[in-house]
Amino acid sequence: MLLHTIKEVRDQVKEWKKQGLTVGLVPTMGALHNGHLSLIKKAVEKCDKVVVSVFVNPIQFCPGEDLDKYPRTLEADEKLCNDTGVSIVFAPTPNEMYGNTPQRSNDFLTYVVPPFFYVNKLCGKSRVGHFDGVCTVVNKLFNIVQPDYAFFGQKDAQQLVIIKKMVKDLNIPVEIVPCPIVREASGLALSSRNKYLSEDDKIQALALNKILNNIKDCYKQGITDVKALKETAYNFLNEHHELEYLEFCDADNLEDVTTANDNTRVFIACRVGGVRLIDNILLGE
Ligand code: PAF
Asked: Is residue 56 within 6 Å of ligand 1 at its C-beta?
Protein backbone atom coordinates (compact mmCIF):
# COMPACT_ATOMS: atom_id res chain seq x y z
CA MET A 1 0.00 0.00 0.00
CA LEU A 2 1.48 3.36 -1.06
CA LEU A 3 0.71 6.14 1.41
CA HIS A 4 1.73 9.79 1.20
CA THR A 5 0.41 11.31 4.42
CA ILE A 6 1.46 11.04 8.04
CA LYS A 7 -2.15 10.64 9.14
CA GLU A 8 -2.78 7.62 6.89
CA VAL A 9 0.33 5.88 8.22
CA ARG A 10 -0.54 6.68 11.84
CA ASP A 11 -4.11 5.36 11.42
CA GLN A 12 -2.91 2.11 9.86
CA VAL A 13 -0.19 1.54 12.47
CA LYS A 14 -2.70 2.22 15.25
CA GLU A 15 -4.87 -0.63 13.89
CA TRP A 16 -1.89 -3.00 13.83
CA LYS A 17 -0.87 -2.08 17.37
CA LYS A 18 -4.43 -2.74 18.56
CA GLN A 19 -4.05 -6.25 17.15
CA GLY A 20 -0.74 -6.69 18.99
CA LEU A 21 1.32 -6.88 15.78
CA THR A 22 5.01 -5.93 15.70
CA VAL A 23 6.04 -3.18 13.30
CA GLY A 24 9.36 -2.80 11.51
CA LEU A 25 10.60 0.34 9.76
CA VAL A 26 13.15 0.49 6.96
CA PRO A 27 13.98 4.15 6.35
CA THR A 28 15.30 4.80 2.82
CA MET A 29 15.73 7.57 0.30
CA GLY A 30 14.44 5.26 -2.45
CA ALA A 31 16.26 4.14 -5.61
CA LEU A 32 16.14 0.77 -3.90
CA HIS A 33 18.85 -1.77 -4.69
CA ASN A 34 19.85 -5.17 -3.33
CA GLY A 35 21.35 -3.54 -0.25
CA HIS A 36 17.95 -2.11 0.68
CA LEU A 37 16.35 -5.40 -0.32
CA SER A 38 18.43 -7.23 2.27
CA LEU A 39 17.20 -4.81 4.98
CA ILE A 40 13.61 -5.20 3.82
CA LYS A 41 13.85 -9.01 3.76
CA LYS A 42 15.28 -9.01 7.28
CA ALA A 43 12.45 -6.73 8.44
CA VAL A 44 9.77 -8.90 6.81
CA GLU A 45 11.28 -11.96 8.48
CA LYS A 46 11.39 -10.37 11.93
CA CYS A 47 8.20 -8.27 12.05
CA ASP A 48 4.49 -8.84 11.46
CA LYS A 49 4.17 -5.62 9.48
CA VAL A 50 6.82 -3.59 7.66
CA VAL A 51 6.85 0.06 6.65
CA VAL A 52 9.45 1.23 4.13
CA SER A 53 9.81 5.00 3.97
CA VAL A 54 10.94 6.47 0.66
CA PHE A 55 11.89 10.09 1.19
CA VAL A 56 14.77 12.06 -0.29
CA ASN A 57 15.29 14.13 2.81
CA PRO A 58 16.28 17.65 1.71
CA ILE A 59 17.67 18.72 5.07
CA GLN A 60 20.44 16.11 5.07
CA PHE A 61 21.93 17.38 1.80
CA CYS A 62 24.54 20.08 2.10
CA PRO A 63 24.66 23.03 -0.31
CA GLY A 64 26.19 21.90 -3.60
CA GLU A 65 25.32 18.22 -3.07
CA ASP A 66 23.16 16.07 -5.35
CA LEU A 67 19.67 16.74 -3.90
CA ASP A 68 18.15 17.61 -7.27
CA LYS A 69 19.74 14.81 -9.26
CA TYR A 70 19.43 12.13 -6.55
CA PRO A 71 17.72 9.15 -8.30
CA ARG A 72 13.96 8.96 -7.72
CA THR A 73 12.34 5.67 -8.81
CA LEU A 74 9.17 5.43 -6.73
CA GLU A 75 7.24 3.14 -9.07
CA ALA A 76 10.01 0.54 -9.16
CA ASP A 77 10.57 0.94 -5.40
CA GLU A 78 6.90 0.31 -4.71
CA LYS A 79 6.91 -2.80 -6.87
CA LEU A 80 10.00 -4.21 -5.15
CA CYS A 81 8.38 -3.56 -1.75
CA ASN A 82 5.08 -5.16 -2.78
CA ASP A 83 6.91 -8.21 -4.13
CA THR A 84 8.83 -8.57 -0.85
CA GLY A 85 5.89 -8.46 1.56
CA VAL A 86 6.07 -4.84 2.71
CA SER A 87 2.76 -3.56 4.10
CA ILE A 88 3.23 0.20 3.63
CA VAL A 89 5.48 2.26 1.39
CA PHE A 90 5.44 5.70 2.99
CA ALA A 91 6.44 8.33 0.42
CA PRO A 92 5.71 11.78 1.84
CA THR A 93 6.41 15.05 0.06
CA PRO A 94 8.91 17.48 1.65
CA ASN A 95 5.90 19.66 2.43
CA GLU A 96 4.18 16.79 4.29
CA MET A 97 7.30 16.27 6.40
CA TYR A 98 8.38 19.85 6.99
CA GLY A 99 5.43 22.06 6.07
CA ASN A 100 6.43 25.39 4.68
CA THR A 101 9.36 25.88 7.05
CA PRO A 102 12.42 27.16 5.23
CA GLN A 103 14.56 24.05 5.12
CA ARG A 104 18.20 23.74 6.13
CA SER A 105 17.61 26.47 8.71
CA ASN A 106 17.36 25.76 12.40
CA ASP A 107 16.02 29.28 12.81
CA PHE A 108 12.63 27.81 11.93
CA LEU A 109 12.81 24.05 12.31
CA THR A 110 13.39 21.98 15.45
CA TYR A 111 16.42 19.79 14.79
CA VAL A 112 17.80 16.74 16.53
CA VAL A 113 21.52 17.51 16.82
CA PRO A 114 23.80 14.56 17.54
CA PRO A 115 26.90 15.06 19.73
CA PHE A 116 29.77 17.02 18.18
CA PHE A 117 32.26 14.24 19.00
CA TYR A 118 30.37 11.81 16.75
CA VAL A 119 29.79 14.19 13.84
CA ASN A 120 33.04 16.12 13.73
CA LYS A 121 34.85 13.31 11.94
CA LEU A 122 34.61 11.00 8.94
CA CYS A 123 31.68 12.07 6.69
CA GLY A 124 30.54 14.77 9.13
CA LYS A 125 33.71 16.78 8.50
CA SER A 126 32.95 17.48 4.87
CA ARG A 127 29.15 17.17 5.15
CA VAL A 128 28.50 19.80 7.79
CA GLY A 129 24.94 19.52 9.14
CA HIS A 130 24.32 16.22 7.34
CA PHE A 131 23.82 14.17 10.50
CA ASP A 132 21.53 16.83 12.01
CA GLY A 133 19.31 16.32 8.97
CA VAL A 134 19.54 12.51 9.25
CA CYS A 135 18.74 12.42 12.98
CA THR A 136 15.90 14.88 12.57
CA VAL A 137 14.19 12.92 9.81
CA VAL A 138 14.81 9.52 11.44
CA ASN A 139 13.40 10.82 14.71
CA LYS A 140 10.35 12.13 12.85
CA LEU A 141 9.90 8.76 11.12
CA PHE A 142 10.16 7.00 14.49
CA ASN A 143 7.46 9.31 15.86
CA ILE A 144 5.21 8.77 12.84
CA VAL A 145 5.57 4.98 12.54
CA GLN A 146 6.43 4.09 16.16
CA PRO A 147 8.22 0.93 15.04
CA ASP A 148 9.34 -1.85 17.37
CA TYR A 149 12.38 -2.43 15.14
CA ALA A 150 14.22 -0.21 12.66
CA PHE A 151 16.71 -1.55 10.13
CA PHE A 152 19.87 0.28 8.99
CA GLY A 153 22.79 -0.81 6.80
CA GLN A 154 26.38 -1.04 8.05
CA LYS A 155 27.50 0.66 4.85
CA ASP A 156 26.67 3.97 6.54
CA ALA A 157 28.44 2.86 9.71
CA GLN A 158 28.88 6.37 11.14
CA GLN A 159 25.16 7.02 10.62
CA LEU A 160 24.34 3.77 12.39
CA VAL A 161 26.49 4.63 15.44
CA ILE A 162 24.93 8.10 15.60
CA ILE A 163 21.37 6.77 15.33
CA LYS A 164 22.02 4.21 18.07
CA LYS A 165 23.39 7.02 20.25
CA MET A 166 20.30 9.17 19.54
CA VAL A 167 17.97 6.30 20.43
CA LYS A 168 19.84 5.70 23.69
CA ASP A 169 20.19 9.35 24.67
CA LEU A 170 16.56 10.21 23.88
CA ASN A 171 15.07 6.94 25.24
CA ILE A 172 13.33 6.21 21.96
CA PRO A 173 11.47 2.89 22.31
CA VAL A 174 12.81 1.17 19.20
CA GLU A 175 15.36 -1.57 18.66
CA ILE A 176 17.93 -0.76 16.00
CA VAL A 177 18.83 -3.75 13.83
CA PRO A 178 22.16 -3.35 11.97
CA CYS A 179 22.43 -5.18 8.64
CA PRO A 180 25.65 -6.18 6.82
CA ILE A 181 26.98 -4.38 3.73
CA VAL A 182 25.84 -5.91 0.44
CA ARG A 183 28.42 -5.93 -2.37
CA GLU A 184 28.49 -6.61 -6.08
CA ALA A 185 30.40 -9.76 -7.05
CA SER A 186 33.34 -7.41 -7.79
CA GLY A 187 33.38 -6.25 -4.16
CA LEU A 188 31.90 -2.79 -4.81
CA ALA A 189 29.56 -1.85 -1.95
CA LEU A 190 26.03 -1.21 -3.24
CA SER A 191 24.87 2.40 -3.13
CA SER A 192 22.20 4.40 -4.92
CA ARG A 193 25.00 6.75 -5.98
CA ASN A 194 26.73 3.93 -7.93
CA LYS A 195 24.24 4.93 -10.68
CA TYR A 196 26.45 7.97 -11.31
CA LEU A 197 29.52 5.81 -12.06
CA SER A 198 30.67 5.00 -15.61
CA GLU A 199 31.97 1.47 -16.32
CA ASP A 200 35.55 2.79 -15.98
CA ASP A 201 34.71 4.54 -12.72
CA LYS A 202 33.28 1.27 -11.40
CA ILE A 203 36.62 -0.44 -11.99
CA GLN A 204 38.49 2.39 -10.26
CA ALA A 205 35.94 2.29 -7.43
CA LEU A 206 37.06 -1.24 -6.54
CA ALA A 207 40.10 0.37 -4.92
CA LEU A 208 38.04 1.17 -1.82
CA ASN A 209 37.21 -2.45 -1.12
CA LYS A 210 40.72 -3.59 -2.08
CA ILE A 211 42.28 -1.10 0.37
CA LEU A 212 40.01 -2.27 3.19
CA ASN A 213 40.56 -5.97 2.51
CA ASN A 214 44.30 -5.49 2.27
CA ILE A 215 44.35 -3.60 5.58
CA LYS A 216 42.39 -6.42 7.16
CA ASP A 217 44.80 -9.02 5.75
CA CYS A 218 47.77 -7.05 7.13
CA TYR A 219 46.01 -6.79 10.52
CA LYS A 220 45.36 -10.55 10.53
CA GLN A 221 49.08 -11.04 9.84
CA GLY A 222 49.84 -9.15 13.01
CA ILE A 223 50.30 -5.49 11.97
CA THR A 224 48.38 -3.32 14.41
CA ASP A 225 50.12 0.06 14.03
CA VAL A 226 47.52 2.27 12.32
CA LYS A 227 50.15 4.45 10.65
CA ALA A 228 51.71 1.40 9.00
CA LEU A 229 48.31 0.01 8.03
CA LYS A 230 47.29 3.36 6.46
CA GLU A 231 50.42 3.42 4.31
CA THR A 232 49.41 0.19 2.58
CA ALA A 233 46.48 2.05 0.97
CA TYR A 234 48.70 4.06 -1.36
CA ASN A 235 49.46 0.93 -3.43
CA PHE A 236 45.85 0.98 -4.65
CA LEU A 237 45.39 4.68 -5.36
CA ASN A 238 46.10 6.49 -8.63
CA GLU A 239 45.16 9.73 -10.37
CA HIS A 240 41.52 8.56 -10.67
CA HIS A 241 41.11 8.62 -6.89
CA GLU A 242 40.63 11.60 -4.64
CA LEU A 243 40.97 10.18 -1.14
CA GLU A 244 38.89 12.14 1.39
CA TYR A 245 39.69 10.08 4.45
CA LEU A 246 40.97 6.72 5.64
CA GLU A 247 40.34 6.48 9.36
CA PHE A 248 40.52 3.83 12.07
CA CYS A 249 37.90 4.21 14.81
CA ASP A 250 36.37 2.19 17.61
CA ALA A 251 33.33 0.52 16.03
CA ASP A 252 31.01 1.45 18.92
CA ASN A 253 31.97 4.98 19.89
CA LEU A 254 34.01 6.23 16.90
CA GLU A 255 37.02 7.12 19.05
CA ASP A 256 40.24 7.35 16.99
CA VAL A 257 42.46 4.32 17.27
CA THR A 258 46.26 4.28 16.94
CA THR A 259 46.72 0.55 17.61
CA ALA A 260 44.14 -1.56 15.78
CA ASN A 261 42.13 -4.28 17.49
CA ASP A 262 39.23 -6.57 16.56
CA ASN A 263 36.68 -3.84 17.34
CA THR A 264 38.38 -1.30 15.07
CA ARG A 265 36.36 -0.23 12.05
CA VAL A 266 38.28 1.16 9.09
CA PHE A 267 36.38 3.89 7.24
CA ILE A 268 37.17 5.19 3.78
CA ALA A 269 35.70 7.95 1.61
CA CYS A 270 37.06 8.56 -1.85
CA ARG A 271 35.88 10.39 -4.95
CA VAL A 272 35.96 8.46 -8.20
CA GLY A 273 34.91 10.23 -11.40
CA GLY A 274 33.58 13.03 -9.20
CA VAL A 275 31.32 10.63 -7.26
CA ARG A 276 31.84 10.45 -3.51
CA LEU A 277 31.93 6.82 -2.36
CA ILE A 278 32.23 5.40 1.15
CA ASP A 279 32.96 1.95 2.50
CA ASN A 280 34.15 0.37 5.75
CA ILE A 281 35.28 -2.88 7.30
CA LEU A 282 35.43 -4.29 10.84
CA LEU A 283 38.88 -5.77 11.45
CA GLY A 284 37.71 -8.50 13.82
CA GLU A 285 35.01 -9.93 11.56
O1 PAF B 1 20.67 6.10 4.88
C2 PAF B 1 19.78 6.73 4.30
O3 PAF B 1 19.33 6.36 3.21
C4 PAF B 1 19.26 8.01 4.92
O5 PAF B 1 20.27 8.71 5.56
C6 PAF B 1 18.06 7.78 5.86
C7 PAF B 1 18.47 6.95 7.06
C8 PAF B 1 16.95 7.09 5.11
C9 PAF B 1 17.54 9.11 6.37
O10 PAF B 1 17.10 9.93 5.34
From this structure: no
Q: Are 160 and 123 in contact (CB under 8 A)?
A: no
* Residues 73-96 as b or e (16 or more Cβ within 10 Å = b): beeebbebbeebebbbbbbbeeee
Say yes or no: CB of residue 156 within 6 Å of ligand 1.
yes
SS3 content of the chain, % helix, strand, coil (to 5): 45, 20, 35
Averaged pLDDT in 10-residue chunks for the chain of 285 residues: 98 98 98 97 98 97 93 98 98 94 72 97 96 97 98 98 98 98 97 95 98 98 98 96 98 98 98 96 97
Whether 157 is in the pocket of ligand 1, judged by its Cβ within 6 Å, is no
Identify the three-state secondary structure at position 79: helix
CA of 41 to the centre of ligand 1 (A): 17
Record the pTM. 0.96
Residue 228 is inside which H or E element, if any? helix 226-231
Q: Which of the residues 4, 33, 36, 130 is marked catalytic?
A: 36
Count Cβ atoms within 10 A of the Cβ of residue 180 and give its class: 0-12 exposed, 13-18 middle, 19 or more buried: middle
- Do residues 23 and 51 lie in contact, with contact meaning Cβ atoms separated by under 8 Å? yes
Q: Whose CA is nearest to atom 2 of ligand 1?
A: 28
Question: How many CA atoms are closer than 13 Å to the CA of 127, on its beta-carbon side?
Answer: 23
Instruction: Please check whether residue 54 is in contact with residue 91, taking contact to mean a CB–CB distance below 8 angstroms.
Output: yes
Contacts with 199 (C-beta within 8 Å, 6 or more apart), sequence order: none
Q: Is 4 a residue of the active site?
A: no
